[in-house]
Amino acid sequence: MPVTTIEWSGDKIKIIDQTRLPLELVYLHLENLDAVLEAITSLRVRGAPAIGVAAAMGVAQAVESFSGRGVDDFFAELDRVSAALRATRPTAVNLGWALHRMRRIAEASRERPVHDIQQALVAESKRIWQEDRDVCRAIGRHGAGLLPDPATVLTHCNTGALATADFGTALGVLFTAHAQGKKLHVYVDETRPLLQGARLNMWELMQEGIGCTLICDGAAAFVMQRQKIDACLVGADRIARNGDSANKIGTYSLAVNAKRHAIPFYVVAPISTIDFRIAGGDQVPIEERSSAEITHSFGRIIAPVNALTYNPAFDVTPHELISAIVTEVGVLLPPYSQSISSLEK
Fold first, then answer.
1. 175: Cβ–Cβ under 8 A, 6 or more apart, which residues?
2. How far apart are CA 257 and CA 147, in angstroms?
3. Which pLDDT tens digit goes with each residue over 190-245?
4. Burial letters for 206-222: b for 16+ Cβ neighbours within 10 Å, e otherwise?
5. Is residue 296 exposed (0-12), middle (13-18) or buried (19+ Cβ within 10 Å)?
6. Concatenated DSSP letters of 241-257
7. Do 339 and 332 form a contact (C-beta atoms < 8 A)?
8. Which residues on adjacent β-strands are paired with residue 337?
9. Are 58 and 99 contacting, i.e. CB atoms less than 8 angstroms apart?
10. Would you kindly state where each structural domain of the chain is located, as residue ranges?
11. What class does CATH assign to 6-137?
């Protein structure tokens, strides 16, 4: 069974420290807001759905310790906590989605004592956690039907249990197909610069006994040309109304190459990853990360001192390169402006 990435442990938030994988499986117990902020920023917890769960739990934990009496002061503290969490990862829409849900629950209880609001927020964070587990399993069932038997699949970045509460999106599709008895082999992009594919996808696939081969990001097109690849499966951190999808840097290149080789390119994500407020991918904020991530590798400098760098964490794949979007309610097909709009509440 896939690991549980994040959960409540008493009044602490228990997470897997993903920066220690694959050599060590280390659990951390986050005791306060500063620890949650550091864990998200440093990618100890990562993946859009997991970040959403972490944000919800972070809000609940932080405001549960509020010692004042006034409701107005409580909501001021809630706003402060939410703003700090929102600033950690700007691209993943699940973070903002979870914070909005938590705020809505608090507003619904505004006329009640502060203690009741605190308890309502803890309960809502637990609901978000359980919903993520259920949603991922539904995504897996819908997506598994897209894969032939046998199937050879190419992936980019980590989309398994480590990116969610405990099952996964794109890798969840593979876990489900594997459980159904389908014979699978997965080519795993290393996913530079932080190697989430090499460190995390390979670890999860090997834990589940699914055949997998690690490749350099730059080898993906050649693998498509020389091997029989049946599908590309990737996740998403934000999906626009027209289907444009933001995901880990390198995803766009993979989609272009898949199109060239007539390979289906599937984006796998929960509905909570759809940002109904934006029309297209040009409106997605793209996080840029430290230059050290590409000038250094595991503590060793690999580029000239003072080299100029550009380190976007994500890119945007245009909707016309996406064969289908797999969600918990089914497989969305083009035109996405219609199929996505039909989901809006």
1. 2, 140, 160, 167, 168, 208, 210
2. 19
3. 999 999 999 999 999 999 999 999 999 999 999 999 999 999 999 999 999 999 99
4. eebebebebbebeebbe
5. middle
6. TTS-EEEETTHHHHHHH
7. yes
8. none
9. no
10. 6-137, 140-343
11. mainly alpha
Which residues are part of the catalytic machinery?
237
Residue by residue, DSSP assigns 302-338 as: -S-TT-----BSEEEE-GGG-SEEEETTEEE-S-HHH
Cβ–Cβ under 8 Å, residues 166 and 133: yes
Q: Residues 40, 51: contact at Cβ < 8 Å?
A: yes
What tokens were used for 329? 């309610």
- Domain 140-343: top CATH class: alpha beta
The pTM (predicted TM-score) of the whole model is 0.94
Q: Are 143 and 172 in contact (CB under 8 A)?
A: yes
User: What are the structure tokens assigned to 316, written together?
Assistant: 């945007």
CB 51 within 8 A of CB 94: yes
Alpha carbons 220 and 46: distance in angstroms, whole number: 24
Nearest one of 4, 17, 12 to 61, comparing CA atoms: 12
pLDDT digits (tens, 9 = 90+) for 31-43: 999 999 999 999 9
β-strand pairing of 6-9 with 12-16: antiparallel
- Helices 114-144 & 48-64, crossing angle to 10 degrees? 170
